């Protein structure tokens, strides 16, 4: 288990991948923690699908919890601080219509945006003429738009006078949304985001120069345990090597002195 779960990376310039992350198609799932799956579509390209949730509401439906995800490339992983920096590439599309059975109460995601700022949005379905006449208001959501209509998103801090009430109809509201990662209209060509995870906690282990593994022996009560980083001798082995060097040095000195005495 330890060998097949040893740290790997997608190329010489890619970040090292070790627990709680694991590399699909190269390592078994047991090498990592749920929600920490990484992939290598090509050399030096480490990909991560970040999953999270947002809340959606209409006049008749409140607090529908929607699962969302974004595809991202991994720039850096700080295991001591439990931070990962990603470049957001694209996001999943919100639904065109809310349904009561969409809400999931058991959605749990291990990541939060570092220094997170949350946004609220309102979606409007508008005729294509609205875009020509009001290009400065709202952000076009292309994945929700159709041949003869456009869907725009308005931030909650917009004045009600900016909302296209006359030429559009309101679809639903999005709240408690992670800024820069929430929806397709928020992603720029190069959006970098730091994400933080609190569980599993391996910062103490990492601070000692070791890395974590999942503890399958639940009787100990510990979720993880520490392993020496590959290429680094364990503490006991290191002490043995040190003793050997000291003894060898003493024997060498003794032989040297004996030689001088005989001569």
TrEMBL record:
<keyword id="KW-0732">Signal</keyword>
<keyword id="KW-0862">Zinc</keyword>
<dbReference type="GO" id="GO:0030247">
    <property type="term" value="F:polysaccharide binding"/>
</dbReference>
<keyword id="KW-0479">Metal-binding</keyword>
<dbReference type="InterPro" id="IPR046948">
    <property type="entry name" value="ATL20-22-like"/>
</dbReference>
<dbReference type="GO" id="GO:0008270">
    <property type="term" value="F:zinc ion binding"/>
</dbReference>
<dbReference type="InterPro" id="IPR025287">
    <property type="entry name" value="WAK_GUB"/>
</dbReference>
<feature type="domain" description="Wall-associated receptor kinase galacturonan-binding">
    <location>
        <begin position="5"/>
        <end position="86"/>
    </location>
</feature>
<keyword id="KW-0808">Transferase</keyword>
<keyword id="KW-0863">Zinc-finger</keyword>
<dbReference type="GO" id="GO:0061630">
    <property type="term" value="F:ubiquitin protein ligase activity"/>
</dbReference>
<keyword id="KW-1133">Transmembrane helix</keyword>
<keyword id="KW-0833">Ubl conjugation pathway</keyword>
<keyword id="KW-0812">Transmembrane</keyword>
<dbReference type="GO" id="GO:0016020">
    <property type="term" value="C:membrane"/>
</dbReference>
<keyword id="KW-0472">Membrane</keyword>
<dbReference type="Pfam" id="PF13947">
    <property type="entry name" value="GUB_WAK_bind"/>
</dbReference>
<comment type="similarity">
    <text>Belongs to the RING-type zinc finger family. ATL subfamily.</text>
</comment>
<protein>
    <recommendedName>
        <fullName>RING-type E3 ubiquitin transferase</fullName>
        <ecNumber>2.3.2.27</ecNumber>
    </recommendedName>
</protein>
<comment type="pathway">
    <text>Protein modification; protein ubiquitination.</text>
</comment>
